[in-house]
């Protein structure tokens, strides 16, 4: 099944470069491009892509606001944020807005294609450096929110354990190895966690875990 991608960036060279790289993949098709966030929202509604490669710093409407609008509209598209990470202070806000992951702009063609595939499949794409930044950001913001703490009680002990591992950026196979269970069992746990907590995907589950205080700077 071909993964349909929309590329959003205000720089033509970036759009063209990513388009060439992705169209070279047999299972990926670039169905459109947008030069700013407003056009991105319109293109998502018109083209219904599976994945949106979203730049953050753009005119008219930035990637953060565009991501929020796309997610609020219940679009099926997963948003993969493009970032020059060390210069970008919007990692936390973009995840809260509903982004499914991050990809560095200097990623290789293979990393770009793999990132699109991971996000399209419903997995979170959180590099260890991004996870570390998230932990520090939540630590800086202070205590977890009470509503978040109350919702933890809906999870079983094993589901809470799986949630922490998801928040650490581990894949289903890695979690299965760690817990010595079948990968299908992990998938079931993740699905139940999302349903119980009313979350859209693994990335939102990771954000929830940080807000609930399940992950700390030392752990």
Automatic annotation (TrEMBL):
<keyword id="KW-0805">Transcription regulation</keyword>
<protein>
    <submittedName>
        <fullName>DNA-binding response regulator</fullName>
    </submittedName>
</protein>
<dbReference type="Pfam" id="PF00196">
    <property type="entry name" value="GerE"/>
</dbReference>
<dbReference type="InterPro" id="IPR039420">
    <property type="entry name" value="WalR-like"/>
</dbReference>
<dbReference type="InterPro" id="IPR016032">
    <property type="entry name" value="Sig_transdc_resp-reg_C-effctor"/>
</dbReference>
<keyword id="KW-0597">Phosphoprotein</keyword>
<dbReference type="InterPro" id="IPR001789">
    <property type="entry name" value="Sig_transdc_resp-reg_receiver"/>
</dbReference>
<dbReference type="GO" id="GO:0006355">
    <property type="term" value="P:regulation of DNA-templated transcription"/>
</dbReference>
<feature type="modified residue" description="4-aspartylphosphate">
    <location>
        <position position="55"/>
    </location>
</feature>
<keyword id="KW-0804">Transcription</keyword>
<dbReference type="InterPro" id="IPR000792">
    <property type="entry name" value="Tscrpt_reg_LuxR_C"/>
</dbReference>
<dbReference type="InterPro" id="IPR058245">
    <property type="entry name" value="NreC/VraR/RcsB-like_REC"/>
</dbReference>
<dbReference type="Pfam" id="PF00072">
    <property type="entry name" value="Response_reg"/>
</dbReference>
<keyword id="KW-0238">DNA-binding</keyword>
<dbReference type="InterPro" id="IPR011006">
    <property type="entry name" value="CheY-like_superfamily"/>
</dbReference>
<feature type="domain" description="HTH luxR-type">
    <location>
        <begin position="148"/>
        <end position="213"/>
    </location>
</feature>
<dbReference type="GO" id="GO:0000160">
    <property type="term" value="P:phosphorelay signal transduction system"/>
</dbReference>
<dbReference type="GO" id="GO:0003677">
    <property type="term" value="F:DNA binding"/>
</dbReference>
<feature type="domain" description="Response regulatory">
    <location>
        <begin position="4"/>
        <end position="120"/>
    </location>
</feature>
């Amino acid at each position: 099944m071909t993964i349909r991608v929309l590329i959003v960036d205000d720089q033509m060279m970036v759009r063209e470069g990513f388009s060439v790289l992705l169209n070279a993949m047999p299972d990926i098709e670039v169905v459109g491009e947008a030069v700013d966030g407003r056009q991105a929202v319109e293109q998502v509604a018109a083209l219904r892509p599976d994945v949106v490669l979203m730049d953050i710093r753009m005119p008219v409407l930035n990637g953060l606001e565009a991501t929020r609008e796309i997610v609020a509209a219940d679009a099926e598209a997963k948003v993969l944020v493009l970032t020059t990470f060390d210069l970008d202070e919007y990692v936390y806000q973009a995840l809260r807005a509903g982004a499914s992951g991050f990809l560095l702009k200097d990623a290789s063609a293979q990393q770009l294609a793999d990132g699109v595939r991971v996000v399209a499949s419903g997995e979170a794409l959180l590099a260890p450096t991004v996870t570390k930044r998230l932990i520090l950001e939540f630590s800086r913001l202070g205590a977890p929110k009470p509503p978040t703490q109350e919702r933890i009680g809906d999870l079983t002990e094993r589901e809470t354990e799986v949630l922490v591992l998801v928040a650490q950026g581990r894949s289903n196979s890695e979690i299965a190895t760690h817990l010595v269970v079948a990968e299908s069992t992990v998938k079931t746990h993740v699905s139940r966690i999302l349903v119980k907590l009313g979350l859209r995907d693994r990335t939102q589950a990771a954000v929830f875990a940080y807000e609930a205080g399940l992950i700390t700077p030392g752990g």
